[in-house]
Amino acid sequence: MTKSEKVAIISTGMTEFGDLYEYEITGIANIAIHEALNKINLPKKEIESLYVGNMGSHLFEGQENLGNLIATYAGFTCPAFKIQAADASGAVAVRNAVKAIQSGSKQKVMVLGVEKMTEATKQYEAQLALASGLDTNWETRMGATMAALFAIMAKAHMRKYGTTREQMAQVVVKNHYNASLNPKAQYQNRVRVETVLNSKMLADPIRLFDATSLADGAAAIILASEEVAYSYDSEPVFIHQVKQGFAPIALHLRDSLTDLSGTEFAAQKAYKDMGISAKNISVAEVHDIFSIAEILAIEALGLVEKGQGGPATENGDTSLKGSIPVNPSGGLKGRGAPLGAAGVAQIIELYDQFKGTCDERQIKDIEYGLAHSMGGSGGTSVVSILGR
Amino acid sequence: MTKSEKVAIISTGMTEFGDLYEYEITGIANIAIHEALNKINLPKKEIESLYVGNMGSHLFEGQENLGNLIATYAGFTCPAFKIQAADASGAVAVRNAVKAIQSGSKQKVMVLGVEKMTEATKQYEAQLALASGLDTNWETRMGATMAALFAIMAKAHMRKYGTTREQMAQVVVKNHYNASLNPKAQYQNRVRVETVLNSKMLADPIRLFDATSLADGAAAIILASEEVAYSYDSEPVFIHQVKQGFAPIALHLRDSLTDLSGTEFAAQKAYKDMGISAKNISVAEVHDIFSIAEILAIEALGLVEKGQGGPATENGDTSLKGSIPVNPSGGLKGRGAPLGAAGVAQIIELYDQFKGTCDERQIKDIEYGLAHSMGGSGGTSVVSILGR
d(Cα A228, Cα A222) in Å, to the nearest integer? Predict the structure, then answer.
């Protein structure tokens, strides 16, 4: 057995994100799985493990053996299981698959992020699903929702740094714009600041258009060690780092309402291990589950100074032509947020950016790309760095 | 970074299994976690990842960010997440943790298997939990339960091999006897064959006493690479192999009703990679979720010939003083079956057997010990081999 530090992405597959009412969860999974296999004509038996990132299969499908279910109906005969860390499930699955390749025991593994949410037709069930990523006793059962907790963070950020309601709305405007250039995005419509500001209030200052919505979707990547990768791709894209950071699950247990400490930790560790800094990041896909989350994320990642997330967004620094484009895919807000699929879709967007296949949303001269995923209100954070 | 193939168990901790009504899931987890840490005076910050094996935290606690929750209330600040593969969740978590050590990136990781089931006071919810490990569409929604599927397997085995109702009952008698020698077991009472045969019918031929019951419990192990292990233990117990096998999730999709093909595959692969055979196994902990499951398992593992699972049990071959003791702990049936904890508890029993701390249920002269865990009706199988 040999040991490879860098892990290559040798293929990808992805459904459109949105209301895929025609398909069950196995059907959605199969679209992404077979696209990834077919692109490189890879026989199924060459996949040695299937890592499924999924958050809510019990709530949505009554299913707690999802890896085995999806493997069965995809025609795989390899080990399969589910990895779950709330809405960071897909990213954590990628992290574990990367370790499996690094352990030398696997040559090719697939990570599938998948979620089928729209069958839960009641908004109540979707709120429950999201709230199950929080502290069950001291947040969820006390009536806190994800929107309420991010509203607290938003208020604290506004007070501390002067972040404005309009700046938060600009995140949404940008991500819808980017999504309109992404054929697989859930939302193809552009929105104006006024639309966001006039939308229904969820939890002051967060309004309906600041939030992501229900979506179905699947995203699959095939990973391989460096020595295997060149058989499939003469210019592979590599995952150089996947770091996971911790913060207490409950917002009230954290030292700060405005710092995503788990994200900061993971990002700094990733930069340090690579000998780079945030300045070497050319493009980032971040966890914009609410608009304020993108502002918090780009600060925690060091892409902008603390307190500058709002102004940087307003100035266009994070737009496609800005100094540090954020969420070129449209993000969770625009591309869509099928929870378990979100973290894997981010990796695919960066892969596509490196491959130069992003048409109107293509970023030029990318040194490194960064993906940032969170579980719950920030208790779980995953930061991945991709490059050549 | 160095690379180690063998992975050592450097500490263990475990709650009693049963109705631990005084504790929430975080409380149960903390007992096992702190016992494992305290035994070797390991500071929490030295644990680099927490792998949580759990099946039903959404059904039982409405919690989908369980790793983060447990890490928070245990005082960890390391990455944490949940791994789920129905009732094999604990064993699959061990497999992933072993790979993390092998990848060279982690020196010490903890695997916690945990389940809190007794709060689901309605038997209906427990049946739902178990059934969520089956094929949701073509089994669960058609009314199939775990008991019903294992009843089909039992009937097929009786017809093909002449396995008797009494032989199945002997599995229960043996495992309750072993449990009566295990202070942490849920059931301390011994039972007679007649008790099993006269218990309430669940799904012919499976009766109430053939089945495992609701339990709460947690089991934790700390894993380290070989070079680290000797700092904590001059005679470490090693996990030499953890293999996962696949079978279609639905019983009707399998080639045979009497062969656990995923278990066979995993066992044969483990034996082959070690250059041993089933004859080198001195003791086994197997997945006796129903009594027939133990008979199927010992055949699939090659510990007895096909069709000989019933007679071998009847003859006492699998008893504590038999040629191949099976489930010395009492198994899922006697020790208890908190679903996500079951696979980790098996590893702890083997560890204790190697350490010679099992008092009246101690097996002598152990060469290798084998742990076998399954998810659902056998779609997911994990086989681990422990030794010096």
Answer: 12
* Contact residues for B26 (Cβ-Cβ < 8 A; gap 6+): B69, B70, B73, B74
Q: What pTM, to 2 d.p., does this model score?
A: 0.96
Q: Taking CB atoms and an 8 Å limit, are B133 and A65 in contact across chains? A: yes
The nearest CA of chain A is from the CA of B15 a distance in Å of 22
Judged by DSSP in three states, B166 sits in: helix
User: DSSP per residue over B323-359, as a string?
Assistant: SS-B-TT-HHHHT---HHHHHHHHHHHHHHHHHT--G
Instruction: Supply angle C-alpha A373, A247, A305, rounded to 5.
Output: 65
Q: A201-203 and A206-207 as β-strands: parallel, antiparallel, unpaired?
A: antiparallel
Q: Which chain B residue lies closest to A340 (C-alpha atoms)?
A: B64
The band of A123, judged by pLDDT with boundaries at 50, 70 and 90, is low
DSSP A106: -
Closest listed residue to residue B374, CA positions, set A85, A93, A81: A81
B81/A84 Cβ within 8 A:
yes
Kindly tell me if the per-residue pLDDT of B202 is higher than 80. Answer: yes
Average pLDDT over residues A151-169: 98
B97-123 per-position pLDDT tens digit: 999 998 886 689 999 999 999 887 666
A368 pLDDT above the threshold of 80: yes
Q: Which amino acid is at B196?
A: V
* Residue B92 with chain A: CB contacts under 8 Å: 81
Residues 6+ apart with CB under 8 A from B181: B320, B330, B359, B360, B361
A24: which chain B residues are within 8 Å (Cβ-Cβ)? 137
Q: Please name the residue that has the structure tokens 């032509």.
A: A321
Residues B36-80 pLDDT 10s:
999 999 999 999 999 999 998 888 888 999 999 999 999 999 999
What are the residues facing B11 on neighbouring strands?
B222
- Chain A residues within an 8 Å CB radius of B249: 65, 68-69, 71-72
| A264 contacts in chain B (CB < 8 Å) | none
Question: Residues B93, B339, B385, B45: is their CA dihedral positive or negative?
Answer: positive
In chain B, the domains with their CATH numbers are 7-121+214-229 (3.40.47.10)
Task: Say if A246 is an interface residue toward chain B (CB within 8 Å).
Answer: yes
For residues A212-226, average pLDDT: 96
End-to-end CA distance of chain A: 24
